[in-house]
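Aggregate trends can hide what the representation actually does to any particular protein. This step matters because it turns folding into a mapping between discrete strings. For completeness, the protein is quoted in full, as a sequence line and a line of structure tokens:
=====
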Amino acid sequence: MGIQKKVILSLGSNQGNRLENIEMCIQLIHNQIGLVLRVSKLYETPSWGFESDAFYNCAILIHSSFSAEKILRKITSIEKEMGRTRKKSVGYEARMIDVDIVAMEDQILTTEHLTIPHPHMQDRKFVLQPVLDLQMDWVHPIFKKSIRQLLQECQDNSDCKAVAELTAPTMNYNVNKINYIAIEGNIGAGKTTLATKISEDFNAKLVLERFADNPFLPKFYKDQNRYAFPLEMSFLADRYQQLADDLSQFDLFADFVVADYHIFKSLIFAKVTLQEDEFRLYKTLFDIIYKEMPKPDLYVYLYQNTDRLLKNIKKRGRSYEQEIPAEYLDKINQGYLDYIKTQLDLNVLVIDVSDNDFVKRQEDYIAILEQIQEKLDC
């Protein structure tokens, strides 16, 4: 998964229904490039650098894991989708929609087609004033000045009048109104990636399973019969300790908790890996622990078919996972599905992500968020 970055974009329109153009563009960016976290007020400003009708301008803050070059390509595609045709002649022109990358955290980039931060942002009030609305602590990586400082020093005296309030698409989601979401799935289903994205986008405390620290895991994949019981017992102890700590000590700076596992996965895996007498002992201990654990407000299970799981496992390259047989994954998946059928008091959402790539395709990620929202609305 690529690391998500905060990207500031500037939007402008002076042809057609300017408000509709801006709102449509914000939604397309949200669906295709990155989650729109914040939007500025909408401003009306005179055309800059040429004679034409007044512009509507705004700024938005997005989260995106795409590179700057890929974001630019997607912006160009959105502009074309909305009917903009770029002329080859040099100079400013009226346009239905115009989107510029203003900044991408502290990145400094100069290519044939792209310069970041935008080389003229400090000269344009219609860029600086909306960006100020985003209330970021961003500092220009070259000038070492805040947006407020740049605006105070800007020589552009043109009128920049607020005309409307705009709403960020993330306001349509109330995922942060619940306390605890658990995201589950088979090995390689993408649960950690999804949990991480949601935590970054919605200011959640992220709880990730500490599987990499378990010394029995590589041994288990080499000799399952010998190491199954110590592996499952160590996982159970660690999961209990981690969830008990993280769910009792709520982060004051987070809105909710999102975890990439639920304690019940311990029983699902144990049923597959342990001998019958070992499982009876294990379940006795598990039942005592399970009664004390808080249950998630929403339990999301990511289903992926076994072929896709094997490809994902191979791609991520953990040496001790490479020999996992398809039959083992099938048993784990069936264990999850059987568990879900019995949980009548748990708010469960099963999402089939077999044909989904919510890292490379923003629209797939949005589709998952919308399914979560629909479940919360029920």
